[in-house]
Amino acid sequence: MQNFLITGGAGFIGSNFVRYLLERYPHYRVVVLDKLTYAGNLANLRDVADDPRFTFVQGDIADAEVVHRVMREHAIDTIVNFAAATHVDRSLMEPDEFLRTDVFGTYVLLEAARAFGVERYHQISTDEVYGQVLEGRSREDDKLHTRSPYSASKASGDLLCLAYHTSFGVPVTITRGSNNVGPYQYPEKVVPLFVTNAIDDLPLPLYGDGTQMRDYQYVLDHCEGIDVVLHRGQVGEIYNVGTGSEMRNIDMARLVLDLLGKPHSLIRPVADRPGHDRRYALDVSKLRALGWESRHTCAEAIEKTVRWYVDNQWWWRPIKSGEHYRAYYQRQYGSRGLA
Ligand code: NAD
Ligand code: TYD
Predict the structure, then answer these.
(1) pLDDT (tens digit, 9 = 90+) per residue, 13-33?
(2) Residue to mutate, 82, 240, 280, ligand 1, most ligand atoms under 8 Å from C-beta
(3) Assigned fold of 3-180+219-241
(4) What is the pTM of this model?
C-alpha cells in the first residue's frame, strides 16, 4: 500500500483521514477524488494542499471514466471510500442522491478495484446499518435492520462490497463507525449545529423528547481505527468503530451549553424526525482485539469539538451564512418554528 485513492476526502471524516495519513506515513501518496457537493470543501484540506504527496481531483465516484482515469494515472493500489450522501434528514427529503452515490457509486469503485487489482478496497460504513438497538450492542454479524433511506443505501453498499469479495476476490474490508464529532463537520449534523447555534444564542432544535442515544466518537479515534483495519485487519471482514458507550441527545445539548456558558433555555424541543432511531450502540471488541483503543469518551470528544468551533469561526461562518445552508435550514427547521 502506497498510492491511496481517498474518495470523499474533501468532506468531514475524509479530510481528517487524509491529514492523518500524510502525517503518519511519510512515504504514502494520496489522491482525493471528490465531487465537491455542498458538504465538500477545499478549506478542509488547505493545510495539506501544498504537500507534494497530495493531489486533488474533482469528480464523481459514479462516473466510471473519471474513476478509471485516476486509477491509471496515479497507479492507485488502495481505495478508501468515504464519498457518500450522509445526512439522514436530507435522505428523507431527497433519497435519489443517496442511491446514486452510496449504492451505484460504490459499485463503480468496486468495479475499478477489480479491474485494477488493488491491494485493498476499504469501505467506510456506519452503525446505522444495524438499525436502532434498544438493548445490548451490535456485533458485526448482526442482521441489518435499516430504517432510513440513508442507512438502507449504506447497507446496500456494504452488501455489494462483501459480494465483490466473495464473487471476484476483491480484497475488501469494511468499518462501521458510530457518530463522529470533531473539526470540519458540516453544521447540519447535530453537534456542530448545536455548538454554532449556541455560540450565536440561537435555539437548539432537539428532536422529540431528546432521549435518543448516540455514541459520539472523536473523528481521529475513528481514523486510527480505519488505519488499524487497513494494516492489520483481515480481508472480507467488518469491524465496528466507536467508543462503545452512548449519550442521550438532551445530555449532549446540556453539555454543549455548559461548556459555552449558555443557558439550558436555548434547548427548543421540536417535532421529531420520522422513523427516528432511538439508540445505536456498538460492540467494538473485534477491533480492540487488533490493538486499537478509543482515546476519548463521548464527553471528551464533544468538549474538544466545542473548542474547535469556538476557535475556528473562519471555517463555519461562511457556510452558515451561505445561500445553500440558509435554504436548507429554512426547509428543515422552518416548519418546526425556527428559521
Ligand atoms: P460528509 O458529508 O462531510 O462528506 C462527504 C464527502 O463526499 C463530501 O466531500 C462530498 O463532496 C463527497 N461526495 C458526495 N458524493 C460524492 C460523489 N458522488 N462523488 C465524489 N464525492 C462525493 O461526510 P462524512 O461525515 O465525512 O462521512 C464520510 C463517510 O463516513 C460516509 O461514507 C459516511 O456514511 C460515513 N460515516 C459518517 C459518520 C458521521 O458521523 N459523520 C459516521 C459513520 C460513518
Ligand atoms: P445526526 O447528527 O443527524 O446524526 P444521525 O441521525 O445520523 O445519528 O443526529 C444525531 C442525533 O441528534 C439524532 O438522534 C437526531 C438528533 N438531532 C436533533 O435532535 N436535532 C437536530 O437538529 C438534528 C440534526 C439531529
Answers:
(1) 999 999 999 999 999 999 999
(2) 82
(3) Rossmann fold (3.40.50)
(4) 0.98
